[in-house]
Amino acid sequence: MRESVDWANMGCVIAGADTAIGGCRSGDAGRFWHCSMVSDRISFSVDASAFGATIFSGHFTCLLKMFDMRGFFGKPTRMNPLASCCMSIASFIKSTVSCWNRKKRMRRKIILSIAHTTLTAKSKCSVDTQLRTPKYHLMEKCYRSKLGIISKANYTSLISCQRLGFEKKGLAINFSPREAWADSNETVDYTCEVLKCAEADGGLSMVNDSRYDYYSIYAKPIPHVNTTCVPTLGMFFVITKRQNYTLGYRQCKNVSALPVDVASEQRTDALAQLLASSSLDMAFVGLRSKNGSAFISVNGDALDCTTYRAWAPGSPRKARKKFDCVVLTKQRTWVSVPCKNNLPIVCELIPGGPYKRGSLFASRIKKHNETTTESQSDDE
């Protein structure tokens, strides 16, 4: 269920009249810009100002169960939960702006308090993490990967091809620069190919092709040959050794990876299949609660930053200090467990670079040299 409310149409403008906020002229005190409800929670984007100075800007998430049809301050109401919650927050902002206009000393206190609230809200839902801001690194010139293609197009600019890659969530791209195909006798159907997956150590799907250059978000370290690609999501591997969460986390970090983020249906379903194919019932993932607080992902985001949940019946447990970690099951559910339990863990490789030329083929070259040496020894 999803609803949206336009405050202008509802007449819920905070400073809709001169008398609304301690002598402010109409429109001087700002208003809510957007209010929406998804499932069991309501999200607000708020911007309130007085006399041209912004004194409140922030984002709220309200759980509907807080209101129980009685409003934020416990007063009975016949409004639906969405309107009830929104009007309650509006009332709070009105009171704040009124206080702001009373005393200079009080004004300072309110501004400092609100500024802290805004920073706290921002820190809970990051938008810039290592896993979310990848970069395509040039891996090998005159090589093309034959891995599956998500999308393809004709661009003369590498930047345009990279943008298409980000849009389609490709893990790698093949790009044919103008100088490569202009001097070649062979035609090029598409200059930009966005790939579902990235090459792992050995580059087993790479072929010599003077028309193309190969780029990947996984340039350093090179994904291990046993890494599993989940198209458009990333490169993952399961550490099957049973150990507590702390030790498992360290082992992920040692190979430039992190415990996996499962805060979406696509990730939960795909990684549950990975567990099933590995003959595992469950494994630690990157969600945990510290000191009994809300569950936080490894990138620092609170679980409330997303609406998706896959809790198994009985989870999360109320005693979060004891059941402070989360496991993903092959049945596509989350279960809260003690972090001290000994279990496998699923890691996600962190995209990075720069690329060291030739490192993609290092294991292939090493194996070829070993085979050659053995053959020479047999001849002798």
TrEMBL record:
SMART domains documented for this protein: CLECT
Pfam families: Lectin_C
Chain ranges of the C-type lectin domain: 236-348
InterPro entries named among the record's database cross-references: C-type_lectin-like, C-type_lectin-like/link_sf, C-type_lectin_CS, CTDL_fold
Keywords: Disulfide bond
Protein's recorded name: C-type lectin domain-containing protein
Taxonomic source organism: Spodoptera exigua (Beet armyworm)
